[in-house]
What we know:
By secondary structure, this protein is an alpha/beta fold. The chain has eleven helices and 20 strands.
Amino acid sequence: MKRMLITLLTALLVSGSVRAEDLLLKAAKVITQAGPPVEPAAILIRDGKIQQIATRIDVPEGVKVVDLGTAVVVPGFVNAYSQLGITGGDSELTREITPNFDVQSALDWESRAFRESSDEGVTTVGISPGTDNVVAGIALAAKTFGEDLPRRILKPDTGLVVTLASDPRSRNRSRSRPDSIYVRQPTNRMGVVWLLRSTLQGARRTADSTGVLAEALSGNRRIYCVSRTHFDIETVLRVAEEFDFAPVIVGGEEAHRLAPLLAAKKLPVLLGPLRTSLTAGAEGTDPAWNRAGILHQAGVVIALSGPDLLEQARFAVRFGLPAEIALRAITIEPARMLGIEDRVGSLEQGHDADLVVLDAEPFEFTTNVRAVMVNGNFVDQPPTSTARGDRALQGTEKEDHKAS
């Protein structure tokens, strides 16, 4: 009810929606993630949705034509795990169990972080509560750009975030002033696990099947579990087996050490930022520069997260991840982990016109992001000249087009 009221109030504050202009984009190549690449390519966009992708399209009269020249077009990048735009703190520190904590009510939609992400090619983000709580709350999926705020929210509830790592015990003390809220459990990893198991046991016993935890245990709500070390991930697998749920592992800095087991259980891994430092993550996990490649080779579905996703993917490719898998790891796979693959993550008919225009192949080190489109609108001005067409156009034609 609270989420519905917030969405309604936001809608009332926004004066109408911004309708995207009908466009036909021409490019040397389009990597759709829904089939083989199309080259040369033309993309017909109507009302912010992809209507057609082909090497040749009959352009309806009056549709604006944008010639991208030798550009390569890929789906908009999806960063499935972030705290982007959360203001005033990303965790409710007075309690350890906050399943109803909803990040939607704490978002600054004008945050500079959204614009910075869109400039890097990220068109969709999963926004999650922080990790100071054992049961952190509800995550959502949103677009990084747009004036119509209700339309920016792709999915107000992508799943429940829990933390099985060292984070929830970091503030707590067993000995301190008796009036401090931090004299409480958990104060160690055993306490984190105990609190999670006891909470899940209570949810399983309750007769209320509409609660957040009960819905998660019944399979009606996805569970994201933030864990980094191999022993924490092993504990996640034991708890998941005990309570019969299949989580998405988030972080997973040492997930590669359990790659065969994760593959056998068919659990996806949403990797934290790849690093070249000697340690990674809050626990200082062992470095492994090819952990994405090791997980993929074992058969684990992976996605990448963190700042500058294209650079993350390039790093993974450099150390062993196949290029086509790396592109999937920042487009369609994170979209599936958020449950929004019917709208974003690939370029196909009926999907949102979210795309990134590159000046060369994605994983060349000199490749740059030339333009970004969200819901059929360029974040900035189109990168090339435009015209209006009224006849069939070939994706790589160079002839001038007269205005209708």
